[in-house]
Amino acid sequence: MEIWLNPACSKCRTALSTLDEAGVDYTVRRYLDDLPTAAELGEVVTRLGLEPWDLARPKEAREAGIDLPKDAAHRQEWLEAMAASPRTIQRPILTAADGTTVVGRDPESLARVIAAE
């Protein structure tokens, strides 16, 4: 399993504790230091069944000046803008070995990704 996190985030710390309690092996990616590419973000939003703007943190997106239409024509621009400003990305993002991907902000999402592992 891979987890994208910001160590300063309480939801990320909770996700790590949950993984540890479940005995799951995982790899940590500090996405603010090891920036995802637009292509990687595109893969993540596809696995999540979302669009990039659905994965954006609204306040941080506004602060980063991301003011793009939320439509298919601007999808790539969203991905590029979020890759350039990774603080705009919801966290933590967990991906199990089978490709199951969740934004692990609640116990149900964490349980789903752990079960897939």
Automatic annotation (TrEMBL):
<comment type="similarity">
    <text>Belongs to the ArsC family.</text>
</comment>
<dbReference type="Pfam" id="PF03960">
    <property type="entry name" value="ArsC"/>
</dbReference>
<protein>
    <submittedName>
        <fullName>Arsenate reductase</fullName>
    </submittedName>
</protein>
<dbReference type="InterPro" id="IPR036249">
    <property type="entry name" value="Thioredoxin-like_sf"/>
</dbReference>
<dbReference type="InterPro" id="IPR006660">
    <property type="entry name" value="Arsenate_reductase-like"/>
</dbReference>
